Amino acid sequence: MRYVAGQLLNFLEQARAITLSPGVDATLPVSRLYDGYADSVCRQSANSANPSVVVDLAMLDSSGGDNGNLDAWAAGVPTSWSVTATGGGSVAQTSVGGEVRTGSAAKLNKGAGTASLLKTYRVRAGQRLTVEAYVRIAAAGNIGLQLYNPVTKKYLTSGGAWQTAQAYWATEAASAVYVQKTVPFTVEDFAANQSAITYLELSVVATAGAGGSDFAFVDDAFIWPTWNALVVAGHNIDAGMVTEARSSTDNFGASNVLEATMAMRQPAFHSYLAAPSSKRWAKLAMTGTQSTQAGAVYAGELAVTYLETALSSGSYEWELQFMDEQVRNTSQTGKVTAMPLMTDARRILRMSFKPRSDAAYREMRDDIVRRSRGGQWPLIIAPIDGEDIVIHGRLDSSWRVVRLFLSQWGDDLTVSESPLPLVTS
Asked: In 3-state terms, what secondary structure has residue 368?
């Protein structure tokens, strides 16, 4: 079984940019692709050949701000960043050719005090991420890049580990031209944070250089998630359309990697990648033109996400129930008339588990049940590895577990698929 549950499971929710081609219908906006409900659809603006959705997975910060490229400034401060400058230290915007990588950059001088920038991110406990920044120095300048979890009080090291002692995940003291600094890492898990959601503080610190020409420069600082699945739910994509999951390191310029060719299914389908992708851009690419009957492509949910493989796979006697919601009338003579309410039957999945380790039990309790808060937040589940069934839905609000033996538990999960798009004609 593969699954993901809880807040921020859909990486589109924090994505820096989502671009539909040929465009988006203004009455059915992009935000509907990640609102957690498959019945509120986002639609392309026209029925054109080879439609697509491109996602820049670089994350917005905890306040929904962007500006990782440090191009937007107001009153001497980069928007969506906080600045600390004491004892003659300074942080300033620069647009001088050799001092920037793109647009503008931040120029830090420590002076006799401090100079630093900080941005806070809201992330999933246990999430796999990549952090990247471009830095350079002038004269005796020196720069340190820091990631701190204020909940666990730990710092990320250059090796991608977490420790209590202060640490920088990258430093630079020599290069007079911009160099890339990047580290893949995993956020501390649910047990460490005692929460499904935690926070990371990204800091840029001038660590040395008090002279008037001793500067540290930073540009294009971003964090983005690793993903291994693309899920489409509540859609109208024709069976003959070729659908692909693609990735890129440069917004599909020179880099355009086919990650998986997807098998279209109704009412939902997905691809599970052969290997997780840490590339910053993801794309749902469709080849062909929709039929006149189907019209422009729409989808209720488009999730770029990371599906975990459960430690406990569940019993074989799982149950799948089809609920074809309808308005139904029976006349006095027994004649039945029915009008469908949704474009397809939604499904209810019931599964039984018998975890045989403490880790498997805690996974069920914390990473599925507690993350989803009894259906307050959505869940995506693919019950059988290698099969095409995938359900985007909600967990039932009641859950109980029985301890059968010292090292064995028993529990049941019921997942109700999200309502599907309504029938309008």
From this structure: helix
